[in-house]
Amino acid sequence: MKRMRLSSQCPTALRFAAGHSQPQQPLSRVSAAIATTTQHQHTSNKTSRRNASSISQRPDSKHVSFPGAVKSAFITDMKFEQPSTYPALPTYRAVDQHGEIVDPNFKPDLSDEEVIKLYKDMLTISIMDLIMFDAQRQGRLSFYMVSAGEEAVSVGSASALTPEDVVFCQYREQGVFKQRGFEISDFMGQLFANVNDPGRGRNMPVHYGSKELNIVSCSHSLSR
Fold it and tell me: Quick check: 183 pLDDT over 90?
């Protein structure tokens, strides 16, 4: 397999994925980004600045912003809606970006430890998506699909299952793997088809799978 030539400025995770048996430094970029994001949540910014390729949510947004969504406004009551009555269907949420409960009927049933674990899993996937999305656009990766706006769906659904439950995943469900214990090095191994890829490079990128975690590899159907 042709090995990629990456500069010293390339993220450690990418250099590790390109074929090094061990990273020269810990896979710290995602961890550092998580810490930075958490820290900045306590800082109020008057202006919001995004990179051109960023797919992250703007602070204090009144609607969902991700590829495919057309300003789906947030609502605080869950009910059936008629699509024809809205420019875009609203998006229900029980808690806002500041951690405040906005649905008065919502009753928390998770411990603080469980909530933090779910939040870290979602944030890790969101940050990894940003990094790998840019890597694919730079030609460092042949194929990638983000899960922007769907992190809670996959992480939350996986958390309701037991480890013995077998899962058949599809694209944009990286959160299921992260919730069950997939590490950043496992994601990188599959994406770059290096020696750590359980599939030995037989699948396209983002076709994750794990026998240990009872998750069947994603399938890819091609037709004319």
Answer: yes
Residue type, 209: G
Residues constituting the chain: 224
Angle between helices 112-137 and 29-40 (to 10 degrees): 120
Q: What is the pTM of this model?
A: 0.60
Residue 7 lies in a domain: no
- Three-class SS state of 52: coil
**Do the beta carbons of residue 88 and residue 62 sit within 8 Å?**
no
Look at the chain and report how many structural domains it folds into: 1
Question: Is residue 167 in some structural domain?
Answer: yes
Burial of 190 per CB tally in 10 Å (0-12, 13-18, 19+) = buried
pLDDT at residue 213 is higher than 70? yes
Nearest C-alpha neighbor of 99 from the set 113, 81, 119? 119
Q: Domain range for residue 178? A: 12-20+27-32+107-216
| 117 inside domain | yes
Confirm if 152 and 205 have CB atoms less than 8 A apart.
no
Distances in Å between the alpha carbon of 75 and those of 69, 129, 195? 15, 26, 46
Q: At 78, which helix (H) or strand (E)?
A: none
**Does the residue 63 lie in any domain?**
no
CATH of the domain at 117: 3.40.50.970
On the question of pLDDT at 155 being above 70, the answer is yes
